[in-house]
# Entry
Amino acid sequence: MWVIKLGGSLADYPDDLNRWLEMLAEAGRGEVVIVPGGSFFADHVREAQKRWAFDDAVAHAMALRAMEQYGLMLCGMRTGFASAPSVTEIRRLMRKNQVPVWLPVQTLASEKLSPSWDVTSDSLAAWLARHLAAEHLVLVKSCALPEGKLDMQELSRKEIVDAAFPNFVAAAHFKVWLVGRDDCTRVFSLLATSQRKSRRLS
# Structure
């Protein structure tokens, strides 16, 4: 299983976003869970918090709903994508050979996560990957990425991932991939290879 977080900033690059959605609609059925970023919906939350000075707990709750808004938008853009408000629904949709798009509010209602901007969709994607026992976590980013081995603390200091992400992936049993918005073909190839291996084992 692959958990793929589509960064909200991909919405600023329609051609790239459409390529990712096309690839996932083709290769992701029954294999991939999409975690949506917050996109411009979360940007509005940040702006509102600065203007109206409400606390981080309120902003966190709003940001989760921003992820859901972006996720619903993605579902509306491709046939075969379906919203999934729970881990149970994610598994059901995957058995039906669909591509679940996680809506996190219901799933996280009873979780004691830090209500701050330190925990964004990056860390939530890692949380989900752990709970699903996924083999791979892919974060799709629009910013420039460093080459070579990933140093999570350094990535956090550079604000490429959120501040909590290094702790969320510490001792993880899944492989973490950070890829750029133009790496769609590479991920497609990785997914295809994974599917061939699964078929050989089944």
Q: What stands out?
A: The first strand starts at residue 2 and ends at 6.
